[in-house]
Amino acid sequence: MIDELVKKIQEKNAPVVVGLDPMLSYLPEHLLQQAIEEYGQTLEAAAKVVWQFNKAIIDAVFDLVPAVKPQVAMYEQFGVPGIAAFARTVEYCKSKGLVVIGDVKRGDIGSTSAAYAAAHIGGVKIGNITLRGFKEDFVTVNPYLGTDGVKPFVDVCREQQKGIFVLVKTSNPSSGEFQDQLIDGRPLYEMVADKVNFWGEDCIGESGYSAVGAVVGATYPEMGKVLRRRMPKAYILVPGYGAQGGKASDLACYFNKDGLGAIVNSSRGIIAAYKDEKYAEFGQKYFADASRQAVIDMIEDINAAR
Fold first, then answer.
1. Which of 43, 85, 209, 270 is the most buried (most CB within 10 A)?
2. How many other C-beta atoms can be found within 10 angstroms of the C-beta atom of residue 187?
3. For residues 270 and 291, is the Cβ–Cβ distance under 8 A?
């Protein structure tokens, strides 16, 4: 799947991923009110409007971008109906030819990680057939439990031609409380990066990149430079661009000399673009058109920087 992601990035000349993180506050008021009128003030209403919102965004941008990244927590908050909206969103994105990165940040002891991997990028054998749960192409993985927590995902990557992005240096302000701590004179995030290399060494695709990638935030470009050198074959998923403060001018170091090696995420900056003064002319009614323009602007911004 890493080769498919690289191919789509090259075809569209767009090293960007749209984060589908639909908070209710991001949704146009008229959509929410319509859902409440039909389903009442219920979880079903919230899930319904999230799906309608996602579909409109996807229809507006699928021809521009190689991938999307739905954040599962934004759906889980609406219970079972929300999870159904997540599954429906994943299916619809795949029907549009998009690579789907499930932002699930899973990581636990071996048997539990194996179940998480089966749910999101693998499958479960029931009787004589194997059934698949959410059907993402990649997932994000928390490495805090070490190899026991990551190996089940890597095994599925090999078996199913899927991929993972391991949290190495995240974009949030407090990430340094643990990730920057020195161990024998080296920051923890560098040690995790070395493990990413080790976990991915048997998963190198024809593109030269590994199915085991890394998450490195746009808000720490100096660390990004170091980590790019330490993980030459790992694709880097870069959150933190735009709304979190990351600038395109800081991102050149995340890419390799071939112009590949990184894919930059924007979530609220795309899906809630109509709320931005820059795109206010579109208004709530044409929120998806605002998102399309925001994607076009982001692609131009990132490509100029790299």
1. 270
2. 17
3. yes
Residue 77's domain comprises 2-305
> Is this structure's pTM higher than 0.90?
yes
Which residues have CB under 8 Å from 197's CB, separation 6+?
A: 230, 231, 233, 234
Helices 43-61 and 29-39, interaxial angle, to 10°?
Answer: 140
Q: Rounded to an integer, what distance in angstroms lies between the CA atom of residue 24 and that of residue 46?
A: 8
Q: What confidence tens digit (pLDDT) does each residue in 136-176 have? A: 999 999 999 999 999 999 999 999 999 999 999 999 999 99
**Per-residue pLDDT at 217 exceeds 70:** yes
CATH of the domain at 63: 3.20.20.70
Q: What is the domain count for the chain?
A: 1
Residue 235 has pLDDT above 80, yes or no: yes
- The one catalytic residue in 7, 12, 94, 105 is 105
> Does 105 qualify as catalytic in the annotation?
yes
What pLDDT shows up at residue 247? 81
User: Does residue 110 register a pLDDT over 90?
Assistant: no
61 CB neighbour count, 10 Å cutoff: 24
